[in-house]
Amino acid sequence: MHLPYSQNMDADMDIDNESFVTAETSLPLGASIIEGRKIFTKLENSPEVMNTLAAKLGLSPALKFYDVYSLTELGLFEHIPRPIYALLFIIPLTSAWERIRLAKDMAREPYEQCGADEPIIWFKQIIGGACGTIGLLHCLLNGPAQEYILPGTTLSQLYEKCIPLKPEARAQLLYDNEAFEEAHQSCAELGDTKPPIGKENLGQHFVAFVRGDDGWLWELEGSRVGPVRRGQLEEGEDLLSEHVLKRCIGGLVEMDGGNDYRYSCIALAKDLAQSVSLPLNSLNRGRSVRDEGVPRRGIWDPSYRHPSWSPPPPGHGGKRPVE
């Protein structure tokens, strides 16, 4: 079954209807406060929006998001380079999916893990309308994508600050972060659909799928009681393989009869047009994924200009192209 890309936007289940932004209405510069809760303007799930937001937060241009036009026709994946670092879905809150979510969450204790040995980084969502940006964080702060985070950026700061924090404190870290809010709001008007404001409920959610440090496939959604481990990945197994897609949302699509076209998916992979050197493993997680005694790569990313940046000397040995 072909699931075409659709310009869908995220919504929170507990937010009621209000109004859409019209052509004559300007978006607020910051988030709204409704009934004492911070509400972000909702985002569209498209490469244009997420690539812009990822760059503002601090992702190297060596990675970018691509449209996934089908979950079953493998020939439609050929435009996406491999490997795939993460998948970001919008999934309609159908009756089938809602039953599955409620049943699983009722059977689980709330997630309370944190620290350097945590296989994934998960954020609980307490900001209304923010599940798109939180889904993006789940894609960028987990798995190999974290090695493409530029130093001194919002992403690198959130990464290092969130490691020792439990979910409630992590959620508050995002809630209070002005740079995170400004980056989100600055992208709210991008895309092909005018964003809703206030309490519009579109019945859809962003869900990220990533490879954890433990080699398992993880489902990450901020409105759940915690992350969901979906199965062990084989060495080198691609996130767009038929086997992995089946474990992501293939079953939900089949249960809904394949008639709901509000599904959409984008995939994070390398941008083959870019050739940059990266500060691999420059983030501090309290442990090193490198072998002891192996020196870190020198940092020089020509796409990034830190205030203290200066050109590397001739014959600089730290510069290497992206592998």
Automatic annotation (TrEMBL):
<dbReference type="InterPro" id="IPR038765">
    <property type="entry name" value="Papain-like_cys_pep_sf"/>
</dbReference>
<dbReference type="GO" id="GO:0005737">
    <property type="term" value="C:cytoplasm"/>
</dbReference>
<feature type="region of interest" description="Disordered">
    <location>
        <begin position="284"/>
        <end position="323"/>
    </location>
</feature>
<feature type="compositionally biased region" description="Basic and acidic residues">
    <location>
        <begin position="288"/>
        <end position="299"/>
    </location>
</feature>
<dbReference type="GO" id="GO:0016579">
    <property type="term" value="P:protein deubiquitination"/>
</dbReference>
<keyword id="KW-0378">Hydrolase</keyword>
<feature type="domain" description="UCH catalytic">
    <location>
        <begin position="39"/>
        <end position="270"/>
    </location>
</feature>
<keyword id="KW-0833">Ubl conjugation pathway</keyword>
<protein>
    <recommendedName>
        <fullName>Ubiquitin carboxyl-terminal hydrolase</fullName>
        <ecNumber>3.4.19.12</ecNumber>
    </recommendedName>
</protein>
<dbReference type="Pfam" id="PF01088">
    <property type="entry name" value="Peptidase_C12"/>
</dbReference>
<dbReference type="InterPro" id="IPR001578">
    <property type="entry name" value="Peptidase_C12_UCH"/>
</dbReference>
<dbReference type="GO" id="GO:0006511">
    <property type="term" value="P:ubiquitin-dependent protein catabolic process"/>
</dbReference>
<keyword id="KW-0645">Protease</keyword>
<keyword id="KW-0788">Thiol protease</keyword>
<dbReference type="InterPro" id="IPR036959">
    <property type="entry name" value="Peptidase_C12_UCH_sf"/>
</dbReference>
<dbReference type="GO" id="GO:0004843">
    <property type="term" value="F:cysteine-type deubiquitinase activity"/>
</dbReference>
<comment type="similarity">
    <text>Belongs to the peptidase C12 family.</text>
</comment>
